[in-house]
Amino acid sequence: MEVILSILVALFGIGFGIFMALQPEDAIALRSRGRYTQVPEPTEEYIRLTRLEGIVVSVLCAVLLVVLLFAPT
């Protein structure tokens, strides 16, 4: 049961990382949605860093998924 849940979390992480990499403006808006102040327009550097975060999250979750699938029991 724990392995299945871990695999689902890893798949969710891969999907969210891909979302962050392909739609950084939407990911930034999702992150700052809970704030009540006016959020300024994101800069190009912030968008680039959000894309990089998405790629890193996807790769780390993919590595976690491979480890969970092929780890000896």
Shape: elongated
Structural class: mainly alpha
Q: Helical content, roughly?
A: over 70%
- Beta fraction: under 5%
Main beta sheet, described? none
Number of helices: 3
The average pLDDT score comes to 83
Question: Low-confidence runs (pLDDT<50, min 5 residues)?
Answer: none
| Termini gap | 13 Å
> What's the domain count?
1
User: H/E element string?
Assistant: HHH
Pfam families: DUF6199
Keywords: Membrane, Transmembrane, Transmembrane helix
Protein name: DUF6199 domain-containing protein
InterPro entries: DUF6199
Keywords, please?
transmembrane helix, membrane, single chain, DUF6199 domain-containing protein, 3 helices
Description of the molecule:
The radius of gyration is 15 Å and the shape is elongated. The chain is mainly α. It has one domain (2-70). It has helices at residues 2-22, 24-31, 44-70. The mean pLDDT is 83. The protein has three helices and no strands.
Secondary structure blueprint with pairings:
Layout: H1 2-22, H2 24-31, H3 44-70
Helix pairs in contact: 1-2, 1-3, 2-3
Transmembrane segments: 51-71
Keywords: Membrane, Transmembrane, Transmembrane helix
Protein name: DUF6199 domain-containing protein
